[in-house]
Amino acid sequence: MSSTPVHDLTATLARTLGEQPAVVLVHSGAIVAHATAHWLIDTTGHLAVELDRLTALHPGLHPLADPAVNPGLHNAGADQQAAVTGVWSEGPATARGDAPRDPACGHTLGDLYQHLSVEARKGRA
């Protein structure tokens, strides 16, 4: 995985939360950043609050706030959640650190997604 602020943060979070919880937490931050950028929810500066507001909009989103699905959200401290919110405030959730901030570029999220499971690595590598 190339070194970008998102990847560096994910690696830092993984040391305390574990790799998969860190990846899911960082992905959650990307989803929240997208939702706030498109005025689906208000920005509060608190990742857990924003994710709760987002999941309230549609039943299909409820798993994002489920501790079994997103343990990092429930185990991360306020400073860790603020770091996730901060890293996505630097640019679109789909931008790469070594590329222009192109909203069509999904490398950062795609790279992280491959860390969720063996199946993701095989099917999307």
Q: Mind explaining what this structure looks like?
A:
The structure is a single chain. This protein is mostly helical. It is 58% helix and 0% strand. It is built from seven helices and no strands. The chain starts with a helix and ends with a helix. The relative contact order is 0.20.
Keywords:
125 residues; mainly alpha; 7 helices; globular
In short:
The chain has seven helices and no strands.
What is the subunit organization of this protein? single chain
How many runs of DSSP E, i.e. beta strands? 0
Describe the biggest sheet?
A: none
Strand content: under 5%
Structural class: mainly alpha
Outline the low-pLDDT stretches: 96-105
Helical content stands at 55-70%
Number of helices: 7
Report the span from N to C terminus: 12 Å
The 3D shape can be described as: globular
Mean pLDDT: 80
Which helices and strands appear, and what pairs or packs with what?
Layout lengths: L4 H13 L1 H19 L9 H9 L15 H5 L2 H12 L17 H7 L4 H7 L1
